[in-house]
Amino acid sequence: MRVLISGAGIAGATLAYRLARYGFTPTIVEKAPKLRTSGYIIDFWGLGFDVADRMTLLPEIRRKGYMVREVRVVNQTGERVAGFPADAFSRVTQGRFVSLPRSELAASICGQLDNRVETIFGDSIAGIEQTGSSVRVTFEHGPEREFDLVVGADGLHSRVRELVFGPQNRFEKYLGLKVAAFEVEGYRPRDELIYVMYTEVRQQVARFAMRGDRTMFLFTFADAEADSTDTKTIRGQKALLRERFGASGWECPQILDAPKSCNDLYFDRVSQIRMDAEDGLWTRGRVALIGDAAFCVSLLAGQGSALAMAPLMSLLVNFTKPMVITLRLSSDIRRSSRRLLRQSRKLHSAWPASLRRNRECRCSYVIR
Length: 368
Prior knowledge:
This protein is α/β, with parallel strands linked by helices. Helices cover 30% and strands 31% of the residues. It has helices at 10-21, 46-54, 58-64, 87-92, 102-111, 159-164, 234-245, 252-257, 292-295, 304-309, 331-350, 353-357, 359-366, and strands at residues 2-6, 25-30, 41-45, 70-74, 80-85, 97-101, 118-121, 125-130, 135-139, 145-147, 149-152, 172-185, 194-200, 203-210, 214-222, 266-273, 283-284, 287-289, 314-318, 324-328. Helix 1 (10-21) runs parallel beside helix 5.
């Protein structure tokens, strides 16, 4: 069975891996010219960690990841004003916890495909036409092709969802925040294995020192306007960051000077995707959605990668006319979800009491 997967991120690569193992013929189409490298640091544990273990990915993920020692909050002069040791998270998850760039996780999963999956970079789906026995797909650049199934794993701004389910504004719930992230080499100072944050009213900037003399920066800020033509280009995005953080304290002026030569800037709004259950939820005939395209929880939830990787859904093909794809929770995901909930409660109880009472600090860490 020929399955086209739109998106070579965490969800798409994980699905391709599973389908190839079970005798399907998956094809991935990815809009970017190569695997994406932009993004932010994620805390990887729980459900996603279990799936990575089954895929024998843990040695590579641990090698690429970091065991953060401290989460530190500083004031405008760089003085530590709050924070906590991060080893509590590893302790309550029995060592099944690591922090790593989201793009590194996606690259590790793609590396498991072993050339068994056709991957088309630099192209995207332009049109989808369903027939009684197949799906005809037109591409922006490549020739028209025919598949048995099409799966949209193309994230918050899913093209598949737009073509088959409806416009994005029908399903998107904007949470009033924008996020930006980038990496630079040679930035000083460095605080090894310490996640450093500086917060002002309605905005925050953080940095984390990585291997290879690289430093990753993450900006989050409140913005009432969900979309703006001024942020469609990297130049416009950099200008907005400078407008919002240019007069801020701590290292903000120095940080804003760092990305002048950076052309790999991650910039997006923080939103959720809420599909219509009465209309079939994540499926339309031979087309389905997974990951953020189907149920983006936003980076504030902290478990988007786990939900993208989890065996959350089984594609059950009912060979009737018309063919129907049904997504159902498998028994192991129910067990894993219950374990995830228990672990989340343990993580919260492991925080210092002062931080559990301090909403600002609590939210600051979740933004990671």
